[in-house]
Design a protein that fits this description.
CATH architecture: 3-Layer(aba) Sandwich
CATH topology: Rossmann fold
Number of helices: 6
Order of helices and strands: EHHEHEHEEHH
Distance between the termini: 23 Å
CATH superfamily: Dehydroquinase, class II
CATH class: Alpha Beta
Strand content: 5-15%
Helix content: 25-40%
Number of domains: 1
Length: about 200
């Protein structure tokens, strides 16, 4: 099975308590349970972790490179300024592994300081604004890329709008970069039976 480290940065251990109007009411334990179930359904072995410590998060990204594990990363506040995290994330995609930056909220719809990601330019793609479903969509992106590697697709830092087939294609998640969208109807995420919500 494909191994995926699902890494969460500072303050995400406070999910369910911290600003539930922004981040929702699910706790980190709830998120872990959902991610593990989604991973199992997708044939992925997931390891969900959370830390408030930048150096620990950097170490986990190094571990992903050494172990050949793909990464779903919610860098939280480190998104906006941690060049150490950015450089460690770059090592993941440079090793030919997938790294999906994920956010519960949509940083582009929030305060100006949240609108810039130093990680986005080295990530394979970004999923943001779908609450805990952002993690499900990120895992689906990893699962859909067997044998695919690194960062492909649109310009660095482009936000992946997973609800749009054109965006999936433009970001290299549905065929080669620049390929036309698949023809025919596509199932929406809500049409996929058996995935927990």
């Amino acid at each position: 099975m494909t191994r995926v480290l699902v890494l969460n940065g500072p303050n995400l251990g406070r999910l369910g308590v911290r600003e539930p109007e922004v981040y929702g009411t699910a706790t980190m334990a709830d998120l872990r349970t959902a991610v593990e179930a989604w991973g199992e359904k997708l044939g992925l072995t997931v390891d969900v972790r959370q830390t408030d410590d930048e150096s620990v998060l950097v170490g986990w990204l190094h571990e992903a490179v050494d172990a050949g594990a793909h990464v779903v990363l919610n860098p939280a506040a480190f998104t906006h300024y941690s060049y150490a995290l950015r450089d460690a994330a770059a090592q993941v995609t440079e090793a030919g592994l997938v790294l999906v930056e994920v956010h519960l909220s949509n940083p582009l719809a929030r305060e100006a300081f949240r609108r810039h990601s130093v990680v986005g330019a080295v990530a394979t793609g970004t999923v943001a604004g779908f609450g805990t479903d952002s993690y499900r969509l990120a895992l689906e992106a990893v699962a859909a890329r067997p044998g695919r590697a690194g960062r492909t697709g649109g310009p660095p830092g482009e936000v992946l709008g997973v609800d749009s087939p054109e965006n999936l294609t433009r970001n290299g998640l549905d065929g080669p970069a620049g390929a036309p969208p698949r023809s025919g109807p596509r199932p929406s995420p809500g049409d996929r039976p058996g995935l927990p919500r």
